[in-house]
Write a structure and sequence with these properties.
heterodimer, A: 262 residues, mainly alpha, 9 helices, 82% helix, flat, B: 435 residues, alpha/beta, 6-stranded parallel β-sheet, 4-stranded antiparallel β-sheet
């Protein structure tokens, strides 16, 4: 493990602890500290990925180990960008552990040698996986926000105040962050599927071969497309949108692992 | 030599007296001047202040004879209010010394209020204190005590969460609204019916920039009147369903015998609203809004009991914070006691002499350490010289402190001396008395 990778893991773990501390004690300085540590971790992670790129000569997203690590990096990055606009402080308590989990699992996985396709095809594969990783990260955040939304909505509906009611923000803010994550994630997913189709044509000579991972990728895209369409057309929001976001992400995760294990 | 002064708090409040007793003993602002001036002329009352609110009547005294001052005050109240002493004497509490100081700190910090943490009490006490200052019945002791109580109250409010959570129906509604909508600015409100509590809730929403306001009342003229008050629009009661597409918050208090809105009224409504959240605050008893409506997505219905239970939770939370407030008060009482005891002439003279002696010793040591060729005899002479100098310098201030005079002047002289020679270094810096 490189120094960059070790620092990344340490920072992600520390920021996870910091965000949990903020949830418990509600001290803003703890949140700010956790944010700074997560940002440092993100920079170290960027350094680690760059180092891998220069060593291997290609973007390190060719196997499950690389993709999981890149997913963790993208989750941290998208979260930090969303924070600039929304300041959804409690979200860090879920995002930082997710990023941590991704890099820890990635570190435990073997790194099989990558069989690189010809340069042009390899470029499409890199685009394909790279965009999907960022898209997946955005959908992961949308899913986490959806979970928070359901918790807060339940406390308000059932008139059970207390720990979560006080600590979670308004439904409006949660809904807005969830929507913003979808807006980021959907074009990425679309672009990822298009580049994947092009890559398939190059490598296998056909665009679509009814492979299960292709089918599940299509289903995932349809779920998110339906969700966005309903939101724009009839103003779908709130509980139903949150549940759909979570369902979409479950299918997405399944597709993600299917992609690397087959 | 001054006699020992005592601080006494005497009064009654919502805990000790029923409302009819509190009503009978409440003093108007017109009464205040007469009471303060009359009692201040009493030979054993040095300083006096009066707080009279709907929940409490309190006198704060600085006196040299506490029992006599209390008796005189009780007689005066009975005479002034034309009511026998026995009708209110049972409800009175009398606190002396530290207990009186602690009591006034607790009152100012809203730890003794009916609703712990309510912010109004401090303003009321400040007004009462301003009255006492205007009538010249506050002196060194009560000035210091009142300013100290203001700073303690401020600390309690800022360092604890005593005022953080809503403890009234209308505040609870606003707090819930914020949890649903984030900001209330620009949220449209529909008021159904006209109850006092509902109007108060609308007022709170308007204060949070909720706009526009629609008012529907069975009597259109009454609706019009209310709408004008909130600079809103009066609508016919039959138009309610149409307006449900537009508004975000509905406050209902109609007095109808059955539900004004039922679940069936919402068919297609949420789609027409593009699923924007809708928040119902049902203050009516019997209820106006069918509780089944709460099961519709993005619709939230809170009735009066729901709001009350929310408030109860907040009250319990405040009680926890109040414990932290009590600790701040306890520390402040100790600090005030230190200042108050020092107001006696003897400790002030001793303190002054000690300070001068300390300075003399320090300077003497510094000087003699530089003079290597000075004999023991000369050292003793220098020592005597500096001692004599200090004694001569301190002679006039000591006479000034010991001289007889008006009771207020003694405290004033001691206080000036202590400030002039900075004898309360350990005490925190007090705010300057307001004009």
């Amino acid at each position: 493990m490189s120094l960059f990778s070790a620092s990344t893991m340490a920072c992600y773990i520390a920021s996870s602890i910091g965000y949990q501390g903020y949830i418990l004690f509600q001290k803003k300085y703890v949140y700010r500290l956790a944010n700074i540590v997560l940002f440092i971790g993100f920079l170290c992670h960027t350094g680690a990925i760059a180092l891998q790129y220069f060593e291997a000569g290609h973007v390190p997203v060719q196997n499950l180990h690389d993709a999981l690590s890149a997913f963790g990096w993208a989750v941290a990055g998208v979260f930090l960008i969303l924070q600039i606009k929304f300041h959804l402080m409690v979200l860090g308590a879920l995002v930082a552990p997710l990023a941590t989990l991704s890099v820890v699992i990635a570190a435990l996985l073997p790194k099989p040698p990558v069989e690189l396709a010809p340069l042009f095809a390899s470029l499409w594969r890199t685009f394909h996986i790279g965009t999907l990783v960022v898209g997946n990260a955005a959908f992961a955040i949308a899913c986490l926000v959806g979970i928070l939304y359901l918790i807060q909505e339940n406390t308000i509906k059932d008139k059970r105040r207390g720990f979560f009611f006080r600590r979670l923000p308004s439904l409006k803010l949660l809904d807005s962050v969830g929507y913003a994550s979808l807006i980021v994630g959907f074009p990425m997913l679309t672009f990822g599927i298009i580049t994947g189709v092009i890559y398939a044509q190059m490598v296998r000579g056909r665009f679509w071969s009814w492979d299960p991972k292709e089918i599940f990728a299509g289903i995932t895209w349809l779920v998110y497309a339906a969700l966005l369409h309903e939101r724009l057309a009839v103003g779908w929001r709130g509980r139903r949108a949150a549940i759909m976001t979570i369902v979409g992400f479950v299918i997405l995760i399944f597709t993600f692992f299917l992609f690397f294990w087959r | 030599m001054a006699l020992r002064r005592h601080i006494v708090a005497i009064g009654l409040n919502h805990k000790t007296a029923p409302v009819e007793v509190r009503e009978r003993l409440a003093f108007s602002s017109e009464d205040t001047a007469q009471i303060l001036e009359t009692m201040h002329q009493h030979h054993c009352v040095d300083e006096i202040a009066l707080f009279s609110t709907c929940n409490r009547v309190e006198f704060l005294l600085a006196t040299q004879d506490a029992p006599e001052a209390v008796e005189a005050l009780k007689d005066f109240i009975a005479e002034f209010k034309d009511t026998p002493r026995h009708t209110f004497e049972q409800a009175l509490y009398v606190y002396n010394g530290d207990e009186a100081v602690r009591h006034i700190f607790r009152v100012a910090s809203s730890l003794d209020s009916m609703v712990v943490g309510e912010p109004q009490i401090l303003g009321q006490i400040k007004d009462s204190y301003a009255d006492a200052c205007n009538y010249g019945t506050c002196g060194v002791i009560l000035n210091r005590l009142m300013h100290k109580s203001f700073s303690v109250a401020k600390r309690v409010r800022t360092e604890t969460g005593i005022g953080d959570h809503a403890v009234s129906i209308s505040y609870a509604a606003v707090e819930l609204g914020r949890k649903i909508f984030g900001e209330l600015e620009g949220k449209a409100v529909l008021l159904l019916g006209a109850g006092e509590m509902a109007e108060l809730a609308v007022e709170h929403l308007v204060n949070n920039r909720a706009r526009p306001i629609f008012v529907a009342n069975r009597t259109f003229e009454r609706g019009l009147e209310l709408a004008e008050r909130f600079r809103g629009t009066a609508i016919r009661f039959e138009e309610i369903r149409n307006y449900l597409k537009e508004v975000d918050i509905v406050i209902s208090s109609t007095g109808a015998r059955q539900y004004v809105l039922v679940r069936n009224d919402f068919k297609g409504l949420m789609r027409a609203r593009r699923n924007r959240p809708l928040f119902f605050i049902d203050i009516a008893v019997p209820r106006d809004i069918d509780p089944e409506i709460n099961r519709i997505n993005n619709v939230y219905v809170y009735d009066i009991d729901d709001l009350k239970s929310a408030i109860q939770e907040n009250i319990e939370e405040r009680q926890q914070e109040a414990l932290r407030g009590e600790r701040i008060v306890d520390a402040a009482v100790v600090q005030f006691r230190r200042w108050f005891r020092a107001l006696d002439v003897v400790p002030t003279i001793v303190g002054l002499r000690d300070k001068m002696e300390e300075i003399r010793q320090k300077e003497l040591k510094k000087t003699l350490s530089c003079l290597h060729s000075v004999s023991e005899k000369d050292r003793a002479a220098i020592d005597r010289l500096t001692t004599a100098l200090v004694n001569k310098i301190l002679h006039d201030p000591t006479v000034f402190l010991k001289q007889d005079g008006h009771k207020d002047m003694k405290s004033l002289r001691v206080d000036i001396t202590r400030r002039l020679f900075n004898l309360d270094e350990s005490d925190e810096k007090e705010p300057e008395p307001e004009a």
